[in-house]
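Sorry, explain these tokens?

***
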Amino acid sequence: QVQLVESGGGLVQPGGSLRLSCAASGSIFSINAMGWYRQAPGKQRELVARITSSSSTNYKDSVKGRFTISRDNAKSTVYLQMNSLKPEDTAVYYCKVDGISSSNLAVSSWGQGTQVTVSS
């Protein structure tokens, strides 16, 4: 079992910033990709940003230049720095981790989600 604990969501005004964190723990031997997804009401969950074990990153076009994903391998933690937030960024943000378990099996795990609301 892999547990993910997210933090950092909240209410922010347009143009503001938030930093999301997601810490992984449990029976995971190695972590490959870590990513952030979001789901707005009535919409499908979508990829926001993803970072691989070699620190290669990719972003949703609408967040490029505003969001930055990073990871701390020693802490098994992924971060999402969100700047210049817009109302359309409002959603529940989910962390996802892909890795190898201590039993040498591929595993994927989702966090519980954290609400980000951008509103004046």
Summary: The longest strand covers residues 28-39. Residues 19 and 81 are 4 Å apart (CA to CA).
